[in-house]
Amino acid sequence: MSQEKVDKKKYEKTHRRSLLRKKKLEEFFSIACVSIIGLAIVGWIGFSIYTKVQESQAELAASTIEYHEINASAIQDYVSTLN
């Protein structure tokens, strides 16, 4: 083995705890970042669906059926003259 490899092995052996702690922290932070991004995406999708549902309910409420009275006395007079 070359001297570089020997020095590297010796360094890894003496600093094993700190290297493992550093590796675990990096894994934890990467999982936390992915989780936060995932939650943000799910929240955004949920909010957009909620707003679309609210808009469609508002459109349904606005498009209620309106009834208008019609004066049919002229038609009734005409039908009564036919008899």
Give short descriptive properties of this protein.
3 helices; rod-shaped; 83 residues; mainly alpha
Structural overview:
It is a single chain. By secondary structure, the protein is mostly helical. It is 83% helix and 0% strand. It is rod-shaped, with a radius of gyration of 38 Å. The mean pLDDT is 90.
Which residues sit in consecutive blocks of at least 5 with pLDDT less than 50? none
**The biggest beta sheet, please?**
none
Termini separation: 122 Å
Number of strands: 0
The helical percent reads: over 70%
Beta-strand residue percentage:
under 5%
| Count of individual helical segments | 3
Order of helices and strands: HHH
Structural class: mainly alpha
Summarize the structure.
The chain contains three helices and no strands.
Topology:
Layout: H1 3-14, H2 16-62, H3 73-82
